[in-house]
Write a structure and sequence with these properties.
By secondary structure, this protein is of the alpha+beta class. It has helices at 10-20, 51-60, 71-75, 78-84, 94-101, 103-112, 128-137, 161-172, 240-260, 293-297, 305-313, 353-356, 392-405, 419-433, and strands spanning 2-7, 27-32, 42-43, 65-68, 89-90, 120-124, 142-146, 155-158, 182-187, 192-201, 205-207, 212-213, 216-218, 222-225, 230-233, 266-276, 279-286, 302-303, 322-324, 329-337, 361-365, 368-371, 374-377, 381-389, 411-412. Strand 10 (192-201) and strand 11 form a beta hairpin. Helix 5 (94-101) crosses helix 6 and helix 7 (128-137) packs antiparallel against helix 8 (161-172). The longest helix has 21 residues, at 240-260. The structure holds adenosine monophosphate and glycine.
């Protein structure tokens, strides 16, 4: 089949790799893509935000499947537009994408369908005073969330009441633009975070490996929040019992609820979870793969990925497309530009890409550009170096060994990606050895 992939980050490079390795793939195109993706896919040469251009390309190149990587085009209704033209799309319609694009929608949906999550109240800008009064009596810490899409940055965890009142004012005063016109005030959940990914066809789902992201910029989960500094899969905290529980208490109720309410969910349902005392509660939903979670979740997946996504897009999920959701372990270390997530410089020449790429590691491009035959940095998150091995510790070592071979001015990365998972596995071995 012919596939058009929309997006141009590390996640889309991972999607491109999994699609390119699919026996059922004929031709892969990407827009806007990136230099790493273009080693696997042909440049579509269209403006991916121009829906008409995307649809025209699909018709003229006999595209059998449109795969939409990022959240913005989904929230903008690209999937709706393509479905109206009879094009098979992997990715939810605009109404279903509200699980990510509106925190209020997601929280109220979870309340309607008894899906476990933190208690919450929502306030519009006109209800600022009521929100302030609510915060006066709320326990601390408390979490404030801008309702709309804010590039992963619309959440503020506040330790004190003063911090919370200030954050509320900043949100209503426009720090996240229109996304903050409505604010969700949420109970703070203790625990350890993990994510689970479900390929959904509107009715049915197939679960992929669980993963853990590392959102903070610095080691030991310190520093400002980022898009994600690294990830590993599978996450030992999500054992088989926990996975079954997440399926029955969270994912199936989402699928049934969305169908019942008239917007069946087709695409990748990303469940961000907080796990404490053996129970998972939802932190957030996303309506697409994670970045950098996709890099590791797809590295351990053994499947005909194109056939899997195409079957989901056609409403008839083909479970036989998956041989194994999690073979071995993978760890992805993000190499970022110095200064990220605040201001950083671009255009630094990257060396060592060929030396880093070997059988045990794969280098995903995230923010790169090709200039006069050189690959240069072109974003905050520049590369994702993904190690793979039968066991997590080796996967981590493979990733770091490859990461060290890559050089560019200002290269910065965390040294502790996967450490939490290794500690958990060691703890388990100790208990078993007792
Ligand atoms: P979100 O964009 O909703 O995933 O939130 C970003 C990050 O904020 C999450 O990954 C958590 O680390 C943290 N967070 C969000 N909501 C909560 C909550 N209710 N309790 C504790 N931490 C939270
Ligand atoms: N890594 C978190 C996300 O993709 O939203």
């Amino acid at each position: 089949m012919n596939v058009l992939l929309i997006g141009g980050g590390g996640r889309e490079h991972a999607l491109a790799r999994a699609l390119a390795e699919s026996p059922s793939l004929a031709k892969l195109y990407a827009a806007p893509g990136n230099p790493g993706i273009f080693e696997l896919a042909e440049q579509a040469g269209i403006d991916a935000s121009d829906h008409k251009a995307v649809l025209d390309f699909c018709r003229s190149q006999a595209i059998d499947l449109l795969v939409i990587g990022p959240e913005q085009p989904l929230a903008d209704g690209l999937a709706d537009a393509a479905r109206r033209e009879g094009i098979a799309v992997f990715g939810p319609d605009q109404a279903a994408a509200r699980l990510e694009s509106s925190k209020t929608f997601a929280k109220e949906f979870m309340a309607r369908h008894n899906i476990p999550t933190a208690a919450f109240r929502r306030f519009t800008a006109a209800e600022r005073q009521a929100a302030q009064e609510y915060l006066q009596s709320h326990s601390m810490p408390v979490v404030l969330k801008a309702d709309g899409l804010a590039a992963g940055k619309g959440v503020i965890v506040c330790a004190t009441r003063d911090e919370a009142l200030q954050a509320l004012d900043r949100m209503f005063d426009g720090m996240f633009g229109a996304a903050g016109n409505t604010v969700v005030v949420e109970e703070f959940m203790e625990g350890e975070e993990a994510s689970v990914f479900a390929i959904c066809d509107g009715n049915d789902c197939a679960l992929l490996a669980s993963a853990q992201d590392h959102k903070q910029a610095y080691d030991n989960d310190r520093g400002p929040n980022t898009g994600g500094m690294g990830a590993y899969a599978p996450a030992p905290i999500v054992d088989a019992t926990m996975m079954a529980d997440i399926r029955s208490r969270i994912i199936e109720p989402v699928l049934n609820g969305m169908k019942q309410e008239g917007y069946p969910f087709v695409g990748c349902l990303f469940c961000g979870l907080m796990i404490a005392e053996g129970e998972a509660r939802v932190v957030e939903f996303n309506v697409r793969f994670g970045d950098p979670e996709a890099q590791v979740v797809l590295a351990v997946l053994r499947a005909d990925f194109a056939r899997l996504l195409s079957s989901a897009a056609r409403g008839a999920l083909d479970h036989s497309a998956i041989d194994s959701p999690a073979e071995g372990s993978a760890c992805c270390v993000v190499l970022a530009s110095e200064g990220y997530p605040a201001a950083y410089e671009k255009g630094k020449v990257i060396n060592g890409l060929r030396e880093a790429a070997n059988e045990d590691a794969y280098v995903f491009h995230a923010g790169t550009a090709s200039v006069n035959g050189s690959i240069v940095s072109n974003g905050g998150r520049v590369l994702g170096v993904c190690g793979q091995a039968p066991v997590l510790e080796e996967a981590v070592n493979n990733a770091y060994r490859a990461a060290e071979r890559i050089e560019f001015a200002g290269k910065s990365y965390r040294r502790d990606i996967g450490a939490k998972g290794i500690r958990r596995l060691e703890g388990r071995q100790r208990v078993e050895g007792d």
